[in-house]
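Propose amino acids for all 327 sites.
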């Protein structure tokens, strides 16, 4: 054998030796082991339930075990930080609202860089935000609420899940656009907030739709004044969106989706996006979402990224203008 032939043979052997580690072949071999979905919230809630249903569908489609790992805390940042620091091989994903990417970084409380460390895979659902009148308020609609706020500046109290929460951002948008003074009442979490709403400790509550809240609405203990959503809800067709009422910038929802560490091979991301979209078309998952008054979304990763960027820019502007800070 000539020296050229031996060298050529060694070159080919070397290429085959390193080929299994190339991104393309690695993507073709994916998934090679169980997939972990880090859910940025505690077990038992709507987001956890949806993530587990999605995990079941992905397990069947991909032929591997898909486990759910709840990493709650810091408004979703703990779970998303775990995703950001995971190996970018497609075996660790995250499920969260977009607020850890669009709110927390503007408040200096994000342990990762949302622009560099994680990538959107697919949106899954949006959770509408309901603006509710409590027994402390006589307002029958949103216009009457604003009229009460103008008549007695600061007397109307609006409860949210905390400073710089989505509800707080909505409140600041409405205050600025309507030229009214409304007192912000921040809570930590939703349990005590709902209890105090039912006993009339404040006039307005902003909260995500859910079975418990909807039950209180049905029996008349809480009144829906407006909803933050792209369109009116099937469950509340008579209630206008904030956009319809002239507050388009405040017409926000809690958008949830699947994320991955930056650097996951593109073929893996595309397969995941396709499988998630397919899962969202199944009657089982759609009924799971609509039963909890959430709305399935889906779509491309690029569109999901665009929505995240828009909300992040909007939040940054509102936080600066209102001087919102978190101690």
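Proposal:
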């Amino acid at each position: 054998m000539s020296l050229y032939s031996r060298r050529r043979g060694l070159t080919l052997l070397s290429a085959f030796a390193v080929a299994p580690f190339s991104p393309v072949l690695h993507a073709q071999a994916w998934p090679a082991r169980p997939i972990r979905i880090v859910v940025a919230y505690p077990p038992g809630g709507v987001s956890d339930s949806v993530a587990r249903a999605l995990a079941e569908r992905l397990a069947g489609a991909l032929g591997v075990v898909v486990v759910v790992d709840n990493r709650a805390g810091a408004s979703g940042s703990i779970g998303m930080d775990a995703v950001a620091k995971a190996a970018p091989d497609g075996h660790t994903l995250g499920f969260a609202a977009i607020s850890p990417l669009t709110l927390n970084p503007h408040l200096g409380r994000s342990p990762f860089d949302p622009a560099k460390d994680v990538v959107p895979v697919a949106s899954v659902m949006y959770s509408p935000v309901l603006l509710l009148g409590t027994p402390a308020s006589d307002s029958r609609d949103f216009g009457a609420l604003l009229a009460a706020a103008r008549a007695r500046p600061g007397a109307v109290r609006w409860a949210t899940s905390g400073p710089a929460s989505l509800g707080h951002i909505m409140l600041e948008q409405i205050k600025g656009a309507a030229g009214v003074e409304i007192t912000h009442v921040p809570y930590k979490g939703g349990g005590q907030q709902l209890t105090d709403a039912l006993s009339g400790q404040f006039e307005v509550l902003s909260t995500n739709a859910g079975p418990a809240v909807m039950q209180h609405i049905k029996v008349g203990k809480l009144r829906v004044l407006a909803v933050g959503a792209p369109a009116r809800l099937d469950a509340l067709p008579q209630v206008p969106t904030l956009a319809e009422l002239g507050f388009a910038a405040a017409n926000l929802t809690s958008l949830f989706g699947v994320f991955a560490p930056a650097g996951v091979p593109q073929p893996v991301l595309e397969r995941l996006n396709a499988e998630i979209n397919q899962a969202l078309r199944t009657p089982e998952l759609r009924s799971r979402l609509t039963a909890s008054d959430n709305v399935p979304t889906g779509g491309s990763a690029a569109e999901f990224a665009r929505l995240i960027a828009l909300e992040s820019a909007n939040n940054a502007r509102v936080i600066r203008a209102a001087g919102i800070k978190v101690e």
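Residues 129-250 form a domain with the D-Maltodextrin-Binding Protein; domain 2 fold (CATH 3.40.190.10). The longest strand covers residues 118-127.
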